[in-house]
Fold this sequence. Notes:
This protein has 288 residues and is mainly alpha-helical. It has one domain. 74% of the residues lie in helices and 5% in strands. It has 9 helices and 4 strands, in the order H-H-H-H-H-H-E-E-H-E-H-H-E. Strand 1 and strand 2 form a beta hairpin. The protein is globular, with a radius of gyration of 20 Å.
Amino acid sequence: MSELAKRVVVALILAPAVVAAAYVGRAPLAATLGIIAALGAWELGRMARERGVEPLAAGVALAAAVPLLVQAHYERVFSFPLSAAATLLVALMGAAIWRRGVEGRPLTAVAVTVLAVLYTGGTLSFAYGLRYHRFTIPSEPQAGTALLFFPVVLTWASDIGAYFVGRAIGRHKLIPAVSPGKTVEGALGGVLFTVLIAWAYVAFVLRPAAHLSVRPLGLVLFGVAISVAAQLGDLAESLFKREAGVKDSSHLIPGHGGVLDRMDSIFFVLPVAYLLLDRFRLLLPVPP
């Protein structure tokens, strides 16, 4: 089977499963986010090992636990206060010192472990916050699903716009030391295409499905911010792989590489989307 065929088959299997988890929400969504986070944390640890750093094994489990803890917080079942997070960090340091000693680079091991947890489980948890945003109606699952996929679709739009504009007129390299194929023209094309798709998504998906909208100026700001975040996420993962000396984060997904290869932009986009839509109040409820 060719690489393209593998990509298509895997996409046809995984995409509906993720959409279904988002639509059903609650435990299935949190569990899906936890699985993705755990695999991503494992891949980040795998890349760290290429540079002689051995993260703590608990990092994978902690990354998976973060979305579940967020769900428990939303369900008012359990709250994870800042003091508990600080205690956990102290426990990780103690475990690293006890198990690794000075020669085992305990500080570096804990740093990479905490990074893996926050980079995967921490960022993906914002998907749950978007799915159950206070402006969505819990009895209408299509509303939360439409809002959750708003930044996800814009991430795809940014990638597509950057790719085709870069191929067509790209001349000036963006950051050749990190990603030689990316150009300034492609980056700008990705931003413009993202703003265009943002307008279309609000008009044809978000407004009818969720009774939500975004002010015109806010829509431009949101599209630009999402595209910039998506491209930064892509560059960040490229930087990780270059430091580790690997082409792909893993080979878990046939035809696609690893979880980090597919989710690199999403990790950056979800927190930015939640911050802009909720804290900066770009999101507006509209009458049905």
